[in-house]
Automatic annotation (TrEMBL):
Family to which the UniProt record says this protein belongs: Belongs to the UPF0065 (bug) family.
InterPro entries, sorted: BUG (IPR005064), Bug_dom1 (IPR042100)
Domain of life: Bacteria
The protein's name in its UniProt record: Tripartite tricarboxylate transporter substrate binding protein
Lineage of producing organism: Bacteria, Pseudomonadati, Pseudomonadota, Alphaproteobacteria, Acetobacterales
One Pfam family cited in the UniProt record for this chain: TctC
SUPFAM superfamilies (UniProt xref): Periplasmic binding protein-like II
Origin species: Neoroseomonas soli
Length: 323
């Protein structure tokens, strides 16, 4: 005859139930391996350089490497598309530009800005500019407007991609002036600026990564889209200087997949915030006159909701299409 002692059975059951809790308590703290940070722009541009500086600074805090992966193309949406499908464990992140919102709204891509991501932190805003080859428009922006008005459809402008922020907001300026230009999209500032210097396009809308060309005398900034003139280029007028009630400094940040555990979100946020205060990142930020736009995870989520509304209105106003 076998006799089962009831107290022994209870002890066995309690021990079994407690085991997962013990395993969780003993699990190593995040992160335990390298983190992937996707940058949906080519190497060498403002976004790439600033994100590499931030990744290097943040990696020192997390004590794990942050590997920057450049994935340009598809109107800067490849990072968002990959992260939306990734496991929500904190090891796959993306830099998230405003164009990722705009193109998703236009093309109904396989992700939703407000549903498929965990906002980690908002970092900086872009200092957008319009540049031209030195000597191309001796009378600056107003000289360009006069020439374009006298030659409808004959001038060309480049941007960092169809439906990217430089493209759509320069299109808005042209709409306000009643101008007709041909748009030529490029994969990034580098390709477009070289086409501009080579005389293949008349204008290039992009970022301050073209600053070296201006300082070298090869190009000029016809206008800047920041609230104030740039410290390094005080002669370049703002849009408000030119009579437009408009500034464009779309903030960008770091996004993770939806469902990221709150403790992992906090760890990433705190580490990236410390990285933003690192002298190495600050030097790069200031070199390209990027605008500090820090927001914590909750405030970044609120900003994204506002940006979705703004982008929806812009799409309707300009009649933008997926093409």
């Amino acid at each position: 005859m076998s006799i089962t002692h009831p107290v022994g059975r209870r002890a066995l059951v309690l021990g079994t139930l407690a085991a997962p809790g013990i395993a969780r308590a003993q699990a190593p703290a995040f992160p335990t391996r390298p983190i992937s940070l996707i940058v949906p722009f080519p190497p060498g541009g403002t976004t790439d350089i600033s994100m590499r500086a931030l990744a290097e600074a943040t990696a020192k805090i997390l004590r794990q490497p942050i590997i920057v992966e450049n994935k340009p193309g598809a109107a800067n949406t490849l990072g968002a598309a990959q992260v939306a499908r990734a496991r929500p464990d904190g090891y796959t992140l993306t830099q998230f530009p405003a164009s990722a919102i705009r193109v998703q709204l236009l093309q109904r891509l396989q992700y939703d800005t407000l549903r498929d991501f965990t906002p980690v932190i908002c970092v900086v805003g872009y200092p957008f500019i319009v540049a031209a080859k030195a000597g191309r428009f001796p009378n600056g922006w107003r000289g360009f407007v006069e020439e374009a008005r006298a030659n409808p459809g004959k001038l060309t402008y480049g941007s960092t991609g169809a439906n990217g922020t430089p493209h759509v907001y320069l299109a808005e300026l042209l709409r306000r002036e009643g101008l007709d230009l041909t748009h030529v999209p490029f994969r990034g500032d580098s390709d477009g600026s070289q086409a501009m210097i080579g005389g293949h396009i008349d204008l290039m809308a992009g970022s301050t990564s073209m600053a070296g060309l201006v300082e070298g005398g090869q190009a000029v900034f016809l206008c800047v889209w920041t609230p104030q003139r740039l410290r390094r280029f005080p002669d370049a007028p703002t849009l408000k200087d030119l009579g437009y009630d408009m500034t464009v400094t779309t903030p960008f940040g770091i996004m993770a997949p939806a469902g990221l555990p709150p403790e992992v979100t906090r760890t990433l946020h705190d580490a990236f915030k410390a990285g933003m205060d690192d002298p190495g990142f600050i030097e790069v930020r200031d070199r390209y006159e990027m605008l500090p736009e820090y927001r914590n995870s909750a405030d970044y989520a609120a900003l994204l909701r506002e940006m979705v509304q703004q982008e929806t209105s812009l799409i309707q106003r300009l009649g933008l299409s997926a093409g």
